[in-house]
Design brief:
Length: 232
């Protein structure tokens, strides 16, 4: 720790030009090209620069299943979802055009579900929320029908997770893991905010009913995964 304080890295202006070029090339290689081109295709909010997602007002799916379970079946009325571990979601996110080709077989799909769990820092949760909305908005920019998946952290009173999601839309919400290792009281408060502020037309509820939740305008679907949607 002492060495780092006494001998900090030199700023670019104090380095030889050939080192500067090497450093900048290295940083460009580390940049995520998927994020770069997706962000150029969508509109952002002014407060936290969250991608703006349009409402989905189409037909409700007859069922929702993990994309990895129906990749080659083409049941158009079944909506593929991403309610599984973050590492598996990332595989689909990192191959956007390949994933888009799979989703094109279906009438609509459900947006990503990167985690916002209690052990994560606030910036990590904000980034997960950003990615979930970015994917939805990017697909919509390419004329795909996407059902917003409104996931939220335990800090339900925060605003960033609502920012960018549409009002008066059919949405999806997952409760997988809430009863076993989550915060049911906080989850219920988050759902109250969703109903009050987004005024959803209908909610596709994935996972078990949480005691005390309103079932108005809800369709329930069982968890088709062996693991929790939080990736534990």
């Amino acid at each position: 720790m002492t060495d780092k304080i006494i001998n900090p890295p030199l700023p670019f202006m104090d380095l030889p030009q050939e080192v500067v070029h090497a450093e900048r090339s290295s940083e460009r290689e580390k940049a995520d090209p998927t994020l770069l081109f997706m962000t150029l295709c969508v509109t952002m909010t002014s407060e936290n620069e969250m991608p703006i997602v349009a409402p989905y007002v189409g037909e409700k799916p007859t069922d929702i299943r993990g994309i990895h379970r129906i990749m080659n079946k083409g049941h158009r009325q079944i909506a593929p979802h991403f309610f599984f571990s973050d590492d598996r979601i990332r595989n689909f996110f990192d191959d956007p055009f390949g994933t888009e080709k799979i989703l094109s077989q279906f009438e609509a799909s459900i947006a990503l579900d990167f985690s916002m769990t209690m052990e994560m820092t606030r910036p990590q949760k904000m980034f997960s929320s950003f990615l979930n909305k970015l994917w939805a908005a990017w697909l919509q920019s390419r004329s795909h029908k996407v059902i917003p998946n409104v996931s939220f952290p335990d800090e339900y009173w925060e605003n960033y997770w609502l920012e960018g999601w549409p009002k008066h839309s059919i949405i999806a919400v997952s409760s997988v893991g809430v009863l076993t290792h989550g915060n049911p009281e906080g989850w219920l408060k988050g759902m109250e905010r969703i109903r009050k502020e987004l005024k959803p037309l209908h909610i596709l509820r994935y996972g078990p009913k949480i005691p005390g939740e309103s079932t108005e305008n809800c369709t329930y679907f069982d968890n088709d995964n062996n693991r929790s949607a939080n990736g534990w």
